[in-house]
Amino acid sequence: MAKNAGVSNPTIYNYFPSKEKLLYAYIEQKHKEAVTIIQEIEDFHTYTLREQLQTLIETELELYLEDREFIIQIADMVFHPSGFKVSSLYETNGLFIDTVEEMLNIAIEAGEIQEPPFQAHLPKLFWDYYIMVVAYWVKDDSEMFENTTQFIDHSLGLAEAVLHSDILSKASDLGMFFFKTHMLSSLQKFATKKETFSKIKRKLGEVLDG
Q1: What is the distance between the alpha carbons of residues 112 and 169, in angstroms, rounded to a whole number?
Q2: pTM for the whole structure
Q3: Backbone angles phi, psi at 141, to 5 degrees
Q4: For domain 2-165, which architecture applies?
Q5: Which of 168, 154, 158, 160 is nearest to 50 (CA)?
């Protein structure tokens, strides 16, 4: 960021009120750079959803590579009990989530995958997955980060298999069944008991007042 702004590393801190704000600006900048790079891939529209998501993640990691020591420091602060809160990173994920959401919508419109249950939540879940990948990457000491590559490949392979199956729909159906059959029934019983208790209380009050 200092190089892009044409200032020295110490000077860059003068532009931000805190280290947290500097961190957020850095992450947002890398998101923008990654999106710009993948938009310049001529045949990117021919990639499968899995290939697009994997390209997005790997592009971000490549951008982080030159600042790996800084990323390691960030990770230590984020995941340290007294450091930054992981939830604070959600302030930086707007562009990332929008990009994933667009990829998902295009895959659905193209008929690559069926519209999954809870579709609106999937981009945010992918952000959580992305944070997990970065956390894994900063601890990866394998040659050329081969372990991270395999982790991404296997985990996205699993996600792809799930999206191409009806597992999510079946899980949604099961959840709705339990909710309608058991949760609603329990709530109705609780409401009935509460109403009965209120009637008894009113009658007792009338007796005492009488």
Answers
A1: 16
A2: 0.74
A3: -110, 15
A4: Orthogonal Bundle (1.10)
A5: 160
